[in-house]
Design a protein that fits this description.
Strand content: under 5%
Low-confidence stretches: none
Number of strands: 0
Structural class: mainly alpha
Largest sheet: none
Radius of gyration: 19 Å
Length: 172
Amino acid sequence: MADTGTEDEYKQFRSGVVELLPRLRRFCRAIAGDGSGEDLLQATVERALARQQQWQPGTRLDSWMFRIAQNLRIDLARQSRGRGTEVDIDAVLELPGQDGRAIVEARSDLSRAERAMAALPEDQRVVLALVVIDGRSYRETADILDIPIGTVMSRLARARHAIDVAVHGAKT
């Protein structure tokens, strides 16, 4: 980082990553679907910092990092298929009795919506996260995911319908 242009780009990149963290955190939590959003966030930032030279100054840092998060999520899903079911030892030790908080949460619409979102197919969950949680337009979402805008609208409609059915029950 001898010349000032490179050093300025380095500082600009780092500050851009820090500025993006709240949005990236929401995105990672949404696409993880299983409570591993913070781990996905950490892995995404770590990979982005390690591969900073691959990012092109002048391009959208958020799109680049969302793509990293999405690719990491896919990689983690592939890895977990071969491992089988993980059991938390603390959860096993606490089996007797009922957790009143868990019972109340299980009855709430929010809990049902979270479970419904976690159950969505990956492609629908990613579109829902970008449009609904991150507030992206259909066009921006289509550009980030490199898919047609009609596909964004279709996936979003299917995701919203699935969550509505899960939260409010089947409607005729």
